[in-house]
Amino acid sequence: MSLWPYTVFLLLFILLTLCNDAFGNNEDNEQILHLKRLQRTQKSINRSCYSQKSKSENGATILEMQHKDYCSSGSISDMNKKLQKQLVADDIRVRSIQASIKNIISGKIVTSSQTLIPVTSGVKLHSLNYIVTVTLGGRNATVIVDTGSDLTWVQCQPCRLCYNQPEPLFNPSASPTYHSVECNSSACQTLQSATGNAGLCGRDVQECNYVVNYGDGSYTRGELGQDHLVLGSASVENFIFGCGRNNKGLFGLASGLMGLGRSDLSLISQTFGNFGGVFSYCLPSAESMSSGSLVLGGDSDTTIFKNSTPISYTRMLANPQLFSFYFLNLTGLTIGGVAIQDSASGKRGMIVDSGTVITRLPPTIYKAVTVEFLKQFSGYPSKPGISILDTCFDLSAYEEVNVPTIKMQFEGGAEMEVDVTGVLYIAKSDASQVCLALASLEYDDEIGIIGNYQQKNTRVIYNIKKSRFGFAKETCSF
């Protein structure tokens, strides 16, 4: 029997395999994005997200987490406007963070009337998209989750100026466990590091007043209070928070904000005895019908997660000047399996932020990324850029497209693969304008930010006690 046909077949198979690897066309380097499926889901958004569920597993508290846009309804034109406004607001947030960082590093003291944001906290804008429900003083409160903020606050009555929210305003006088925070307390003195503004004392020394101003003119003002906080099945006595009597801005329909930063007033610091300084989340896509989860505690017992790949860990960097932010080192980035060359590889400190939407890269890296992406994602009609996004296409004629896989590598060998829904941003619901969901910083010396759009369907673990981040793929479900 002749071996010639078998030999020819084997040689052809080897040749095809080598070609696939060379041109990045294997399974690991491409993902299928179902455009029509996303469009249909976007049009069907119409539900309430208040009084979300919670549960407890193996000592960890798990809160249902959803994208704020999923909890609203509106026409397609309204959706398109919202998608575009989100980019504008995101740009304001990032510019404010960068300005704040420069002021801190230079040692410049900036008053609240001069600065765009609190000196050491992230700016809270419409782009803070993910919400959870907690119980404060016996009443439910649906709050925006932000790792770039420290002070947790809710709108309170009587309110001099409050934006509309579906839930009843928090009423301190109706809670038997509520107490005001005094002006001479350590908590009041901690406000400076948590918000950038010192605590203010009025005629009543029993009250410590706070002021937080944000980059778009939004603000919250009121007094510090403490009350019984329930997170799922976990109880936190005397939790310190802002009782907002004067609030205005783009906070959507949320009752307030949950600060997951690193200062003494953040929820993570105040619940250190409960959860050991450990939390994680899986952020769902706004276009999907699923819920994500915010897990408080649980890093030592990963059976509570639903990750489909092993968790890889990297070091959490210490930055005494910017201690409220979460830093790590970006050591590499690949597009469709092709490594992006960067002269500063391994020296790029990045902030991980749940409030920023679009990941920001230094200009030199961003340019190299777009050049490689266009090489691999070619043949599609181009479209003009929109806001911060400049690499756009018209994909309205396609039901699905193959997009290059984007992977970020971090110090110690950790890796985060960007979910297929986080590679392209659908700026118009009919897919007539779809853009690469990455943006450039203005200068190379600015600090990059990993935004929530690229963190979707990923288990991101923050372990302050062990000073490490963890990343794993996970299809978000509660």
Automatic annotation (TrEMBL):
PANTHER family membership: ASPARTYL PROTEASES, PEPTIDASE A1 DOMAIN-CONTAINING PROTEIN
Keywords: Signal
Protein name, as recorded: Peptidase A1 domain-containing protein
An individual GO BP term: proteolysis
Residue ranges of every copy of the Peptidase A1 domain listed in the record: 130-472
GO MF assignments: aspartic-type endopeptidase activity
Top-level taxonomic group: Eukaryota
Residue intervals passing through the bilayer: none
Keyword Chloroplast recorded: no
